[in-house]
């Protein structure tokens, strides 16, 4: 009953997945090295069941699987982190904006020509320590509440670096802090942020999963839009491209409106957290999940 990208690839690659209903699952870690055997069969099976679509992506999954197997600390699959010396992996990860699981580390600016301060792009589960550091680093380097300074990291980038420096103990401490803060503020906590338990349990229906799909869909649609605009300009086959890539029909206005709505809801949520209005925070969380879920369903329907 899961979508093609659920659970995330890094979970399927390293664990036996046991569905327990309503989009939730238990993940049983497999021994590193030996996990290549079932993962090889799984990738081939998924490729066949999809009608042999996305051949390039499937071969990329193979390359990532074997590249990661021979790197005991993990490297986000086949990426710049595979080639970089181990000591530089954290900086390569920040440059690529991908952690060892392949998940985005930080929320990027939707429009690179209109940069925003890093502290304003904190994910819901960023630690309070990192949020404070991101704010003061931005201010100290010439930024304001509306304009990024010379240095303007996001709280999630700071959390990532803290986790790399302090190791597993530091990462579990940050998870504990984030769990405590979510209970205090009323924010929804992603399962992978729960200390210890997050390694063995997941949920594909929560806000974190919907957000991942939402931003992946936005990036894909923007790529399609560039292709369509280029073909129109050069007199290429636009109709044929739209026929082969139905999701490209969403165009520009729909995604922009939805992204603007999500951004406004996140700002309203931050305001509610500052006021200590936990009921309002939970209400906005539900609306955020619903908005992103509807957009994801619309994109999936077109793809289908």
Structure description:
The protein is mainly alpha-helical and 304 residues long. It has eleven helices and three strands, in the order αββααααααβαααα. Strands 1-2-3 form a three-stranded antiparallel β-sheet. Strand 1 and strand 2 form a beta hairpin. The radius of gyration is 20 Å and the shape is globular. The two termini are 15 Å apart. The model has no long low-confidence stretch (mean pLDDT 82).
What is the compact description of this entry?
Strand 1 and strand 2 (24-29) form a beta hairpin.
Features:
3-stranded antiparallel β-sheet; 5% strand; 11 helices; single chain; mainly alpha; 304 residues
Give the secondary structure arrangement, pairings included:
Layout: H1 9-14, E1 15-21, E2 24-29, H2 36-49, H3 55-69, H4 80-83, H5 89-96, H6 128-140, H7 155-185, E3 201-203, H8 207-234, H9 238-244, H10 253-275, H11 278-303
Antiparallel strand pairs: 1-2, 2-3
Mass-distribution shape: globular
**What series of H and E elements makes up the topology?**
HEEHHHHHHEHHHH
Q: In percent, how helical is the residue content?
A: 55-70%
Termini Cα gap = 15 Å
**Class inferred from helices and paired strands:** mainly alpha
Strand order of the largest sheet: 1-2-3
Mean pLDDT: 82
